[in-house]
Amino acid sequence: MQDALADLAWLVEMGADEVLEDAPINRFEEAAETPPAPVRGPSPAPNANPAPVAALDAAPASTQLAQAAPDLDALRSAMAAFEGCALKHGARNLVFSDGQAAARVMIVGEAPGREEDRIGKPFVGRSGQLLDAMFAAIGLSRGAEDPTQALYITNTLPWRPPQNRDPSSDEIALMKPFLLRHIALADPQVLVLMGNPASKTLLETTTGITRLRGTWAEVMGRPALPMFHPAALLRDPSKKALAWADLLSLKAKLETL
Length: 257
Ligand code: URA
Prior knowledge:
This protein has about 260 residues and is of the alpha/beta class.
């Protein structure tokens, strides 16, 4: 029993955390039974990274769909119906947003993880618990009704990348029009860009978060503060002092607006 539990824990740790079939399939047996394919001429070179043809073809569609959405509900529906991004097919739920859309502060994270994919809301796992504690320390929360104390939270990508891998630049480029429209429709006074993908995407830079964090920038005509992602703070608690300085900077900025 202990061994079975240990095996299960190991599988979850390795990212095999979804049940796809009622009964297990032995792929080794299948491979042994399948006759080798006939060889006709030289076989093509294996391509570990196939060109994201669908992604590139779908880019104009995501721009048009995003632009056509008159409000947040329509944007959510347009994203849910969008078939151009392969991540959708490996995800359980579209993760659109949480908190209050009228909040002064909008947080943009990276992409859903396992818990977010399961529940359909951003930042509900360990990173989310830390994020909530961080913002509570400066009087902001996703549950607040008063927009001056509320948060609105979304991600750069609305679907979980398989095994929580980093989002690819094609996936981000494809979904960026939806993110820009999301910001335009929510119209926050201030943006907080959590981690590398959000900061690099919205600031259109290749500079990493370690150099960007703490320096106010502008995104779509409003102040934007890049910060370390809470997951980075969980990995390296010595970064928490810098995150605290950034939170105080955000608090001070809100007092001036
Ligand atoms: N990390 C993110 O960037 N977003 C989430 O929603 C969860 C974890």
